[in-house]
Amino acid sequence: MNKSNLIDTLRKETNLTKVQATQVVELLFNKMTEALAAGDRVEIRGFCSFYVKEYKGITGRNPKTGEPIEVPAKKLPFFKCGKELKERVDYQ
To answer: Rounded to whole angstroms, how far apart are CA atoms 79 and 69?
Structure first.
């Protein structure tokens, strides 16, 4: 399922207009993105949680030349599957 499919499904299930359904989906994704960017955790009980993991900077090596390279610190979003979702996917 992609974003367009989600919007169409929401529209059909709730009798919203396509514009309204698009606004709902956009609002949801935007608020989740804002929370993660602020360092907050997003948890949807029984489904999943999203959180940001921080990595320290390291000294790596260029595989081609073997020359040391400084890799800067970074933050990446992570997804953790909820127990109910895990069980539902595994049993179907």
So the answer is: 29
Tell me the backbone φ, ψ of residue 64, rounded to 5 degrees: -80, -45
Q: What is the pTM of this model?
A: 0.76
Domain harbouring 37, CATH code: 4.10.520.10
Give the structural domain span for 12: 3-91
Q: How far apart are CA 57 and CA 68, in angstroms?
A: 13
Contact between residue 10 and residue 19 where contact means Cβ atoms under 8 Å apart? no
Q: Is 40 helix (H, G, I), strand (E, B) or coil?
A: coil
- Per-residue pLDDT tens digits for 10-46: 999 999 999 999 999 999 999 999 999 999 999 999 8
Nearest one of 9, 57, 7 to 27, comparing CA atoms: 7
- pLDDT of 46 reads 86
- The tally of domains found in the chain comes to 1
Q: Which residues, at least 6 apart from 14, have a Cβ–Cβ distance to it below 8 Å?
A: 21
